[in-house]
Specification:
With about 150 residues, the protein is an alpha/beta fold. The chain is built from 5 helices and 4 strands. The chain has a single domain, classed as Phosphotransferase system, mannose-type IIA component (Rossmann fold, 3-Layer(aba) Sandwich), CATH 3.40.50.510. Helices cover about 40% and strands about 15% of the residues. About 35% of the residues are buried.
Length: about 150
């Protein structure tokens, strides 16, 4: 079973870990979080991530980071060099929950579940307006509302 490491801008990683533990209190997965402070350099953040990796059981690690190209994901990529790990960016709550549900899968399959869970958790949700109620114009621009 792969360990899971959440790496994000502070305090997101800890908040995601708290939500994960709330929803899956009985999960026997090894999960840790690294909150990268706003003052962190790439080197200091990578050292934080490396320390967290050393604290996890040996074996495979799935690292879930927040934004691709930001310091937390760059630090994760630097820290996993030489470790059996995969890094997935764009972490969200549905992604974390999916990973916890399928934590016993091999790492490659877990990566697929993480990406699918993250994507499927993102959707546009709109409430349709009530019937027979006029929709207000978004602006006073007469070109956008020629019937006025």
């Amino acid at each position: 079973m792969a360990s899971i490491l959440l790496v994000a801008h502070a305090p997101l990683a800890s908040a995601l870990l708290e939500v994960a533990r709330h929803a899956y209190a009985d999960c026997d997965c090894s999960v840790a979080a690294v909150d990268v402070p706003p003052t962190a350099t790439l080197e200091s953040a990578a050292a934080q991530v490396a320390g967290a990796l050393q604290g996890l059981p040996s074996g495979e690690v799935l690292v879930l980071a927040d934004a691709f190209g930001a310091t937390p994901s760059n630090a994760a990529l630097a820290a996993v060099d030489g470790v059996q790990a995969r890094v997935v960016t764009g972490v969200n709550v549905p992604m974390v929950w999916r990973v916890l549900c399928y934590g016993r899968l091999p790492l490659a399959d877990l990566v697929t579940r993480a990406v699918d869970g993250g994507r499927q958790g993102i959707m546009q949700v709109a409430t349709p307006r009530r019937q027979n109620q006029p929709q207000r114009p978004l602006s006073d621009d007469p070109d956008q509302h020629p019937d006025q």
